[in-house]
């Protein structure tokens, strides 16, 4: 069993709040995520936030993250970990990062599926196959798609059927039902992949309408300090549609 620990290093969040959020995330992981993704994990509140026990993947709660991220996760010396900021909804950010940390601890996993293109502003399938970065919350990261566990807002996440070739009746594409078809990107969400010919990282963004963008070239030394997922996070702006909007930065 994987252990995820909430480590409170902020000046505003109380120990009791951390316990409540950890309990909600533990329910989400065991009740909602495990049957869908086969992840066996538990989430706990750590008593000493600066002493992370061996074998625990921490989600560190801070007042402000380096780079002003709301939430990010990566891996260091084989240990997946995340950091979330109290500047926005840190509990929802923690849920988001917890799910993605568990679904893809490496930050490098991909899933092959039908490619996408924009034709006259509409998303269309292509004959190519793309290797999509496995980011289970990004296409539906807006707060409008969150749901409640014990008074705590937690993130919706897509299911493995998100990469199916075609729509099928009775199939759930995200746990909370925000997604209705494979490879759908809801408002304020995005989807990332590596193009099969150019090998360039690209995204379909739905911020103020759809657009496909090329991410910056990744330097030769980037792999030594960041995972592919963290590199994508660092190069993805996030819209803010209202004050409580969950944003990654």
Total tally of structural domains? 2
Tell me, what's the shape?
globular
Low-confidence stretches: 240-249
Query: What is the element string, with H for helices and E for strands?
Result: EHEEEEHEEEEEEEH
Mean pLDDT reading: 90
Q: Which range best describes the helical content: under 10%, 10-25%, 25-40%, 40-55%, 55-70% or over 70%?
A: 10-25%
- What structural category do the secondary elements indicate? alpha/beta
Largest sheet: 5 strands, mixed
The strand line-up of the biggest sheet is 2-1-3-5-4
Distance between the termini: 31 Å
Overall number of strands: 12
* Contiguous helical run count: 3
Radius of gyration: 17 Å
Percentage beta strand: 25-35%
What do these coordinates show?
The chain is α/β, with parallel strands linked by helices. The protein folds into 2 domains: 2-103; 110-234, no CATH class. The protein is built from 3 helices and 12 strands. It has a 5-stranded mixed sheet. A 5-stranded antiparallel sheet has the order 6-7-10-11-12. A two-stranded antiparallel ribbon has the order 8-9. Helix 1 (15-37) runs parallel beside helix 2. The two termini are 31 Å apart.
Descriptive tags:
five-stranded antiparallel beta sheet; alpha/beta; five-stranded mixed beta sheet; 18% helix; 249 residues; 3 helices; disordered C terminus; 12 strands
A few lines on this structure:
The protein has three helices and twelve strands, in the order βαββββαβββββββα. The chain has helices at 15-37, 90-103, 228-234, and strands at residues 2-8, 41-45, 56-62, 71-76, 79-85, 110-119, 122-133, 147-149, 152-154, 190-194, 201-206, 210-214. It has a five-stranded mixed β-sheet. The protein has a five-stranded antiparallel β-sheet with strand order 6-7-10-11-12. Strands 8-9 form a two-stranded antiparallel sheet.
